[in-house]
Amino acid sequence: MQWYYNMNMVQIKKEMKVMSKELIIAIIFMNLALLFYSIGVWSEKIQKTLKPWHLAFFYLGLICDTTGTGAMEKIAGGINFSFHTITGGAALILMLVHAIWATVVLVKKDQNMIAKFHKFSIIVWVIWLIPFFTGAAMHML
């Protein structure tokens, strides 16, 4: 019985997927991106105005997303053109445009744009969720 148990454990260990350091880094940073970006976008939406601290969370989300994406690219050995990478690239560009536009709006102190900015934020956030969830789903399969 002991022999069978030991053989089973060896087989189980061989079949277990061990996460690489890069994958752990990618997962941590992508989840931090989700956390920071969501805090920035939803706080702005709830408060109905753009504030400097929202902008800080937009940039934190962008930095974490870029770091996580870089780790994933390293794991993949480069960029492969798939639905996930195309939507992910588009989402990163949108996040960058979003953060830069938020910076310009705050610097100009345009009260009309500050009050309306949250509508654009929600759209970018929803688009960003597409590659986030497709990436998670791809890894689970």
Describe the structure.
InterPro entries: HsmA-like. This is TIGR03987 family protein. Keywords: Membrane, Transmembrane, Transmembrane helix. It comes from Clostridium perfringens. It is a single chain. This protein is mainly α and about 140 residues long. The chain is built from five helices and no strands. The chain has a single domain, classed as Four Helix Bundle (Hemerythrin (Met), subunit A), CATH 1.20.120.1770. The relative contact order is 0.13. It is elongated. It has helices at about 1-15, 20-45, 50-75, 85-110, 110-140. The longest helix has 30 residues, at about 110-140.
Task: Give the SSE layout.
Blueprint: H1 2-15, H2 21-47, H3 52-76, H4 83-108, H5 111-140
Helix pairs in contact: 2-3, 2-5, 3-4, 4-5
Keywords: Membrane, Transmembrane, Transmembrane helix
Protein name: TIGR03987 family protein
InterPro entries: HsmA-like
Helix content range: over 70%
CATH class bucket: Mainly Alpha
Low-confidence stretches: 3-7
Average pLDDT across residues?
85
Radius of gyration: 20 Å
Largest sheet: none
What is the total domain count?
A: 1
Secondary-structure element string: HHHHH
End-to-end span in angstroms? 34 Å
Instruction: Examine the coordinates and then state which fold CATH places here, giving the name of the CATH topology.
Output: Four Helix Bundle (Hemerythrin (Met), subunit A)
Number of strands: 0
Quote the beta fraction. under 5%
Overall outline: elongated
Assigned CATH architecture: Up-down Bundle
Helical segment tally? 5
Structural class: mainly alpha
